[in-house]
Amino acid sequence: MSFVVMGLDPQPFVPLYGLSDAALAAHGARRYVADVCPGFPDRIEVRDAQPGESLILINFEHQPAETPYRSRHAIFVREGAQTACRMIDAIPEPLAVRPISLRAFDAAHEMVDADLVDGRDLVPLIEKMLANPGIAYLHAHYAKRGCYAARIERF
Fold first, then answer.
1. Structural domains of the chain, count
2. pLDDT beyond 90 at 93
């Protein structure tokens, strides 16, 4: 089964790029500079920032549906990222090197399945979950901190 891993649309974050630390704080955000790799996974390009690259840590509503599963959490976006990841039948490196919590949602945005997996073993779990016609899409979360990582859909 073909699938696509998608990063976030950069447009909501572009107005934050280049803001002062005080202006970022007014948005509930703060700037970080990556000092190790891996360690700062960007949610737009779905790649780990390289040492010296600047990121914005911000609270983001990744599950906005009006259900009990509505959710938001802290995410990093690389300052200057302009193109969302769109990877077909492949796993971006940040997902492959970390434990992942994979959460399956139906068309009504209700969670119908979930599992934990080592990122190296993510493809078979994606294929298994997407084989269920009742599942509309998947959310991958970095299991250690619980942060939203990427959306996965059938392709």
1. 1
2. yes
